[in-house]
Amino acid sequence: MAARVLLQRRALATMALGGMALTPATVLAEGPPQEHKKRSIYDDLDLPSANPAPLSPPVTQPSAPIPTPVDEDQPRPHGPTPTDRLAVQIGHARLALYRAVAATEVKLNETMDSAFDLEQSFTSTLASLAPGRETGEKLMPGAIYVLVAAMAGSIVTRNRNIVLRATVPLAMGVGAGWTVLPVTMRNVADHTWKYEQKVPAVADAHLRAREILQKSGSFAKVHKDLGARYVDEKVTDAREIVEGWVKQGK
Known about the structure:
- The structure is a single chain.
- The longest helix is centred in the last third of the chain and has 50 residues, at 200-249.
- The chain is mainly alpha-helical.
- It has helices spanning 2-22, 82-129, 139-156, 162-180, 182-196, 200-249.
- The chain is built from six helices and no strands.
- The radius of gyration is 71 Å and the shape is rod-shaped.
- 68% of the residues lie in helices and 0% in strands.
- Among the domains are: 85-129; 134-249, no CATH class.
- Component of the mitochondrial contact site and cristae organizing system (MICOS) complex.
């Protein structure tokens, strides 16, 4: 009897559990308000309400700059290295050395050109002073005669004053030159006159001295002619007197 009652209760309980499992239950989002509701474990979650309050704009907090990824294939910008600076300085030194060498070379070329020009001028001047072959004038014996005449003038005036010792040998040498080397002295005079024309004061002094010499020469020539005429007259008179005495003696 007791086993039968126990089996009936177990069957009823099984049927009740099966009916609860098969019967769908309605689940409300919000249950009816109850005064004494048991708190669920999901009450701590903040569920969205029907009318949400306006949200304030989020306050952006300053954040650290995000490092930009660097591509190792691209060249990185960097300043000049010590090697680059040294190369620049070496380049400047080489350019300065090249300019100095070029300037020295130009100066040397100019000096050599001036020396060659001076040599050519000297040789051409000597060639222009020499007498031509058609003149028949020879330099060697004539130059020796001029030198002997100058030395003779120096010997004659060795005990005289300094003015005579300076002018007499020169005058005797120039006179001997015009006597034995007239063509050469003419060439020397013409060449000297070209240089004198570059200095007007010297050229004027030369012209004045030449005029004085010409006047002195003409004056001396006139006096020479007058003296010769006077001597001729006196000689003629003396001869006539002698001839008259001779005639009277006969």
